[in-house]
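Table S4 entry, Alpha/beta hydrolase.
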Amino acid sequence: MSEKQSRRRRGLAVAGGVTGGVAFGAALAWGIPRYLARRTRASSVDPYAHEPFELPPQRSVFTVESRAGVPIHVETAGPEDADLTVVFVHGYMQDMATFYFQRKAIAEANRGDVSLRAVLYDQPGHGRSGPLPRTEYGIEDLAEVMHDVLTAVAPRGPLVLVGHSMGGMTIQVYARLHEADFRERVKGVAFLSSSAAGLDTVETKPMRALRRLRRTVLPMLQQVAGWTPDLIDRSRLLAGDLGWLLTRKAAFGHIDPPASLVTLVERMNRRTSMQSIVGYARAILDHDETATLPLFKGLPALVVVGDEDLLTPPEHSRRLAAALEGSRFALIAEAAHSPQLEYPGEISQLLLEMIDKVVAEIGRGSAVSAAPEATPFERDPGRHRRWSPFSRHHGHRLEP
């Protein structure tokens, strides 16, 4: 064998070794998360394994076009002529599925002669709604979308507004921008894991990461063509098992959350485009509606937060509750940023108790006389389901 042939054979051997090493490393990088995720899913005690999260109880499905031309996905549960409408507004990187259990609770609630209706929608750039036509968004944009949804599917009658995280911020801005409608119609509010101001000073890993995202990625997206976030989104879709493990670790306060809930949260996060993730960063960090809170004076109010929430830490909810005179504050033990999913029975019960206060204050006569009228939007009839009462029993601490 010639020296040239020998060098070539050695080169092929080295190349084969490198290729094999890369392939082996890639297999490990792909295989280990997949193995761990499957094993964790299999070992987790899951009381929600058969919950149809993709097919919740609904009465109608709408597409509402906002004044900015954004198609907004809206669903309702309960009779259209209900005495009281409960509007759910979800938060950052989630969608209406975060209120799955509370939607069920409203659909199944028996409040005597007072009927309830739930209205849920996906915020722009989340779930099945279209994105806002800009690189960067504001909470004011979300408040206007909320106004458009109410005008379309719940134009009349008393309301209870329920906001989680960024959804709570949306409600605060809505009260400021549409004060007359707010004062006339809103009879109760609930803020879950939300804040009125100061998130730009929170020194937790997730919030420091959000500030870095705002400083670095946002300027790039404002200068580079739209294909850049598309490529990032494709890579995120390929990282399913790793994303599932990270979600399990970061998004839940309980040491062993049900696998189906981890899958639900991971799916909501993954469906939120990078454009939306970055586009809302400044709005969340700059949010300050402290001066708006007096508008909520006198309303039955519920403020809930998990004691392990790293995105909107408990002190933010404490300050919010202190500013809402007479509100009920609940600190949920072993819960992170989405207590409505981790402890659905408790949160649904707290919400229904607040709704009972609303019903007692407005009286059945005024509620019926202001029942919502039919809307002109074409509907897709949803399946009707009957759900057995459900509650997951875990302790929570209530503070005045």
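The chain has 14 helices and ten strands.
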